[in-house]
Amino acid sequence: MELQFIGADHEVTGSCHYIQVGSKNILIDCGMRQGGITYENVPHPVAASKIDFVIVTHAHIDHTGMLPALYKEGFRGQVIATTATAELCDIMLRDSAHIQTMEAEWRNKKGVRKSGVETVEPVYTMEDAMNLIKLISPYSYGKIYTLCEGVRFRFTDIGHLLGSASVEIWLTEGRTEKKIVFSGDIGNKDQPLLKDPIKTDEADYVVMESTYGDREHEWERGNPVDELADILKDTFARGGNVVIPSFAVGRTQVMLYYLRQIKQNNMLPEYKNFPVYVDSPLAVSATEIFVENEEVCYDEEALELIHNGISPITFPGLQLTISAEESKGILEDYNPKVIISASGMCDAGRIKHHLKHNLWRPECTILFVGYQSVGSPGRRILDGAEEIKLFGEPVAVRAKIESMKSLSGHADRAGLLDWIDGFKTKPRQVFVVHGDDAVTTEFAALLNDRGYTAMAPFSGTRYDLATGKFIEITKGVPISKAAKTRVVSDSYTKLKISTKKLQELVEESTGLPNKDLDKFTAELEKLIEKYRR
Questions:
Q1: Structural domain boundaries, residue 522
Q2: pTM, full prediction
Q3: What are the Cα distances from residue 521, in Å, to 461, 478, 514, 516?
Q4: 481 shares its domain with 504
Q5: Claim to verify: residue 41 and residue 98 sit in the same structural domain
Q6: What is the tally of helices (H) and strands (E) in the chain?
């Protein structure tokens, strides 16, 4: 009965944890690393073909984005998710595959001009994504299900995203039963549309996120609707556009909720009919899924609007663009407007085109409404970069840069503490993950000061859940500068996965004749010598 930490350890993205119980191998999330990456991640302890289940906490790509790659490597098990998460994964993983393919094609076209540049391949294709999606099984909140012999689980609404959940898992080996809870991403209280996080009563072990474990959310201008209205008014008066890089799922719908209030309450009478464009096919599809799941996931305020015949996230002047032609048509509208586009960190998708046409204009505003990972284009803009590269060309940053710090889908330090304090008795061990390097360490220290036994593990750390003892405590291995530049093709990770397969092959070769073993060894030594040079 073992827990091993794979990803989002002393980092925010790439969430992945491994559980072994009996003969079963289970992953909790299988996320993609985004933005700046700091430490090496160990490969999965077993080959993808030997993973039986993946339990998904929510649909964000940093928790699900490598699922199709897992399929590509041989995974044929079952993906477990809430109903809304299953529906969102359907559109988000297909979108991710499309973006990666387009990025790879662009990089390869650029590489043709340079001799000796290797062809870039996407981590996975649309076919991989579609095949993986067929393996997703939807489950409801609040019910205890038997996953397999020795494993039961329950999803609890954690209020971070439509369908997001913390996961309670009961593990049994022989006469030993232990309960471990994975928080997933803990939602912020009192945010629009979604319910507040629901607490869990008891657990032996807890793996919890710490994204904002070192700070309290700021409310600099009071009500976020008033703050947004002020930004719109100031920008429209200059004759500019408000460009909002926004995560297509979750944050876009929150922004629509606020914009509906601004229009309904006539908060900008001088710009009463200002247009709002949502330029993201993914965001359009996600908004439809939000509507489909409103009765299960919406909070009381949003449901009251619905029951009174009012849509919380649609309004006059809202234009949803899907085709490339419609997207280009936004540039032909010279009136001041709001453009909401993905991706939220400005590292892919149509937002890059809107930045190219608005970032250099002093009359425009770029409004950030979500977390910007270290190393991402959005973070560089927010930190004061004078120019950034878009499509290989430098673009000056002359637009006004704003950030709505009162918006967050993640609980702050107080919210995190409130959630962990909800356990009736303190868990035996708390593992702090999903936070920047210093944040995880600081939050774990805070928990220890409050009487918990807590630590922030690095990738590769192993823990025996049956005995409550560490099998291995690893140190963080800083990732090389060259590895940090990998965006589309994660070749080094593929190599490490192949190494694991090679190790398994060697172990299975014990019964081969010496002649075959000697030949195998000679071929391996030739490869080692070839690449050592």
A1: 498-532
A2: 0.82
A3: 31, 32, 10, 9
A4: no
A5: yes
A6: 17, 23
